[in-house]
Amino acid sequence: MRDIGIEVKKPEGTCNDECCPFHGHLSIRGQILTGRVVKVYGKTAVIERELIKYVPKYERYMRKRSKLHVHNPDCIRAKVGDIVRVGECRPISKTKSFVILEVVSSAGN
């Protein structure tokens, strides 16, 4: 298992995925984000991030949501409802430029 240079919990499982940062050759650089998994299909997961922005005109805060397509390696297998930490990588496909690094909390917890 490779050391990716980021303080995350290593996955227990193994995989033969080339796009896995721990068992493949994918390097992580750039942003590290946290979000909740809302959909999983194939090796792709959709995470949703909630952003809170201050609007000076109305002197209030506004909630915004942002969805992001990420790669879900076989050794991690995030499920719907999990809170995950993702890292930026090279473009894997047209819409995927992030990969799941760890599951912070499971859907049951």
UniProtKB/TrEMBL annotation:
SUPFAM superfamilies: Nucleic acid-binding proteins. One of the primary rRNA binding proteins, it binds specifically to the 5'-end of 16S ribosomal RNA. CDD domains: Ribosomal_uS17. Belongs to the universal ribosomal protein uS17 family. GO terms for molecular function: rRNA binding; structural constituent of ribosome. InterPro entries: NA-bd_OB-fold, Ribosomal_uS17, Ribosomal_uS17_arc/euk, Ribosomal_uS17_archaeal, Ribosomal_uS17_CS. GO terms for cellular component: cytosolic small ribosomal subunit. It comes from the Archaea. Pfam families: Ribosomal_S17 (PF00366). It comes from Archaeoglobus fulgidus. The gene is rps17. Keywords: Ribonucleoprotein, Ribosomal protein, RNA-binding, rRNA-binding. The lineage of its organism: Archaea, Methanobacteriati, Methanobacteriota, Archaeoglobi, Archaeoglobales. This is Small ribosomal subunit protein uS17. GO terms for biological process: translation. Part of the 30S ribosomal subunit.
